[in-house]
Request: fold
Amino acid sequence: MLNLTRRQQIAIGLALTLLMLLTRSHHWAGLHSLPDASWAIFFLLGVYVRALWVVPAQIAASVGIDYAAITWGGVSDFCVSPAYWMLLPAYLVLFAGGRFYARRHSLSLLGLFRLVGVALAVVVVAELLTSGGFYFFSGRFAEPTLAGFIPRFEQYFPRMLGTFALYLGVAAAVHVALAALRRDDGPRTLMGTHRER
Reply:
């Protein structure tokens, strides 16, 4: 895991929660052009924050933001259905992917390729869980079939992948810049200063 102080982890967790508040869907009028950062947030929590309680706390924050947006913000409740619970395993997969990455990859070209591989794998699984869950379990589609789901996956997955890649790329660039400012003699990981032995 990463060698971050408790204070650094709390600061990162709070910053990611603020990012979720500012970007979750199109809930806030002046910020409608910012894409939803939720998936990248759960992945980055897995990378940077050791405490497991952050996962239910961040899930509660996301549900609270959705509730406020629907109740007071005039956002459609179309996506809130029996399939809404599929967000839970999707977020857990993203968090676990972040944890996996944090333990295994170094600041190198190979480490970058591994980051891309882990990120791609967890985003595919998260999209299958959320889009598949909505298509098959929401009750919004009369007769859902695998043949009907595949075009929907092809339609929505590139946008979700692009959004995830945008936020993850920004986070990685910020991290590499900060790591360059804190050069030291020990081995470094792409998302942390020291690899634990």
Notes: Residues 8 and 180 are 17 Å apart (CA to CA). Residues 27-31, 188-197 have pLDDT under 50 and may be disordered.
